[in-house]
From TrEMBL:
Comment on protein domains: Comprises two domains: an N-terminal domain containing the nucleotidyltransferase activity and a C-terminal HD domain associated with both phosphodiesterase and phosphatase activities.
The species this protein was found in: Pseudomonas jessenii
Protein name (record): Multifunctional CCA protein
Any single GO BP term: tRNA 3'-terminal CCA addition
UniProt cross-references to PROSITE patterns, sorted A to Z: HD
Additional detail: A single active site specifically recognizes both ATP and CTP and is responsible for their addition.
GO MF terms, alphabetically ordered: ATP binding; CCA tRNA nucleotidyltransferase activity; CCACCA tRNA nucleotidyltransferase activity; cyclic-nucleotide phosphodiesterase activity; magnesium ion binding; phosphatase activity; tRNA binding
Chain sites annotated for binding CTP: G8, R11, R91, R137, R140
Domain HD: 228-329
Amino acid sequence: MQIFKVGGAVRDRLLGLPVTDIDWVVVGATADEMLAKGYRPVGADFPVFLHPKTGEEYALARTERKSGRGYGGFTFHASPEVTLEEDLIRRDLTINAIAEDDLQNLTDPYHGQRDLEARILRHVSPAFAEDPLRVLRVARFAARYASLGFAVAPETLELMRQLSESGELQALTAERSWKEISRALMEDQPQVFIQVLRDCGALKVLMPEVDALFGVPQPEAHHPEIDTGLHTLSVLEQSALHKQPLTVRWACLLHDLGKGLTPEEEWPRHIAHEHTGLKLIKAVNERFKAPKDCQELALLVGKYHTHCHRALELKASTLLELLQSFDVYRRPQRFEEFIGACEMDARGRKGLEQRSYPQADYLRGAAQAAREVAVQPLLEKGFKGPELGEALKRERLKALKAYKDRASA
Ligand code: CTP
């Protein structure tokens, strides 16, 4: 048997990037030979094994044939006769279809090195269409390597468009899609992921609520970029520049969905978009089974982002309601993420990227003031149960009034 390094490990080494995961392909072996050497099988009928010591993945060279719709619709053909070239041709991109032996000799039948040089993400063959998840993968690679100058080849974008129109994307499971989406959002240029999905028509299928924001105008005074879709891309871009966590990036992507529902005659204003958007945010959250912290933050940011922008003008009672809604006493981190997302929203506007955002520190101070109200003196006065809750609220309101007075002095 012959063993080659393949995929991301070869690609990233050639790009001079750090390599974390190594995938291997094994040519000329049977499953029984692998088992005899101590490799552990990954699944019953999947020709992939884990190395007994390193735990790295070793896949038997295989060809794949699609036998039906969706991810279940695969039959694998792995046998010692399958050649390295036959294995590489069914892979997604030419830059992922280069094999390397233990002397660092490369086998590159589909010119992956040429495409690495030319900074092109190009599919290897029509077999690309066998796995519709690749539409999301290519968009994710575009986001990851945008800063190196990579772009999707026109013929690959065309194939992605055909796949998006074919209805195949709907067959993807929430789990597989979320894995790609969450990884893509954590790349340096997550806005490129959304842009590429839009360019090939996949955004309309996966997240029509986000796609609908393109072409919707906002008032130029607050939004010099005018277009709500472009604004959303800029907010995402800012979230990566400011190294925000996944929760914040997800909330940034979804914060303005309500603007896609505004009747045209009301444009460019979007009255109550914070409320109309909530059902859309919920739908997208559920479609991809986003983790609970992502779902929660997206809904809270959707509902309250304009409160944050107006923080300095809010009455003490409204400030208190905001802090109570976030349960800042027990969930300080979530409130910090909310402030982060709102700051990204404020900066994700053309020409305003460097603006200051005093609302952030102002709200942090308000949360601190409310948090400093001690429970003990109220317990000593004999308050309990719901009365204690009310008394605490009154004390916090007093503290917030004092805070506001101090801030405006
Ligand atoms: N692959 C593919 N189609 C997929 C998934 C994987 O063709 N839907 C192939 C590609 O050749 C890829 C390799 O399997 O390079 C390994 O896949 P994976 O580990 O998911 O990705 P990497 O390319 O290693 O990239 P990453 O750095 O994102 O892990």
